[in-house]
TrEMBL record:
Protein name: Uncharacterized protein C3orf26-like protein
Biased composition (Low complexity): 17-32, 79-90
Gene Ontology CC: 90S preribosome; nucleus
Residue segments, region Disordered: 1-90
Length: 287
């Protein structure tokens, strides 16, 4: 008996396989039919929608928008008014104001207050112009060298201390009559070398000098600037555009108090006086 072949029969050539019949779509089960689970929705409930906020009506535009030229000018005027208040305050209030700053900078105790008492401050005569403030000081003829006495070179009677060279130039322009009557020393760093200033001080009689703390210290320690005739120390407390004074600027406040403690304090103990001024910044000066 012949054995049956286990090999599958080869498909006949030229005849394609018939496609499988497509599956019929499953019929949808009606809702509520028992045994059929309803798919859970992936959407989560976040509560009722928030009520719409009504837009607030815009108010009128500010008169001086922040950052504008008008706003900066208003800030400068407000700062100037603040310093004008202390410049016109009684001597007791001025002494307390300056002492508080010295104590904050140096940590001095009340026992070290010599030179910063009310008696060390000249009577306040506030003015918009430095020249008018100087004109109100007593003994003006004497400290301006009009008394006929011999005046040594490089020894001013009035020392004006300010925070920047550009401010010093502005203050000098505010003293046209003083400039005509006597020599005003320009003792600041910008455009002037220390050696040049030492040469001028060693050969010139000057009754009024305007300078910045650091350069004044260097000229005093070099022996060029002498304090034998010093009668008034005018401190410019006017604020700059950043609302800082010579007592607040990081680059000047330390030098100012070094100048006071090391060189000026003995003069106050022997009769010299402070004058606080907050003269306006102007190129033309008094008319």
């Amino acid at each position: 008996m012949a054995k049956a072949s286990l090999k599958p029969k080869a498909a006949s050539k030229g005849k394609a396989k018939a496609p499988l019949p497509a599956k019929a779509p499953a019929a949808k089960q009606p809702a509520g039919v028992p045994g059929v689970e309803k798919k859970k929705s992936k959407r989560r409930y976040h509560g009722p929608p928030a009520p719409r906020q009504e837009k607030k009506p815009r108010g009128p535009a500010p008169v001086n928008p922040p950052g504008s030229r008008q706003a900066r000018k208003a800030e400068e005027e407000a700062a100037q008014a603040t310093t004008a208040t202390i410049a016109g305050a009684p001597a007791t209030q001025q002494a307390d104001w300056l002492w508080d700053r010295y104590r904050a900078e140096s940590g001095a105790s009340e026992l070290e207050r010599q030179g910063l008492t009310a008696g060390c401050f000249a009577p306040a005569h506030p003015s918009e112009w430095l020249e008018e403030s100087l004109a109100s000081l007593p003994e003006q003829a004497a400290f301006l060298g009009r008394g006929g006495q011999h005046v040594p070179v490089g020894s001013p009677a009035v020392l004006v201390v300010t925070g920047a060279a550009i401010r010093a130039v502005s203050l000098i322009r505010q003293m046209p009559a003083v400039n005509k009557a006597c020599k005003v020393g320009k003792l600041f760093a910008k455009h002037f070398k220390q050696a040049e200033q030492e040469a001028v001080l060693s050969s010139t009689v000057m009754h009024v000098a305007v300078g910045t703390p650091n350069r004044l210290i260097k000229l005093i320690e070099a022996g060029a600037l002498k304090l034998g005739r010093l009668r008034y120390v005018v401190v410019d407390v006017a604020m700059d555009a950043k609302k800082r004074t010579v007592l607040d600027m990081a680059e000047t406040k330390s030098d100012f108090w070094t100048l006071f403690a090391s060189h000026l304090k003995p003069k106050f103990e022997s009769g010299a006086q402070f004058v606080l001024t907050s003269c306006k910044v102007d190129k033309d000066g008094p008319q």
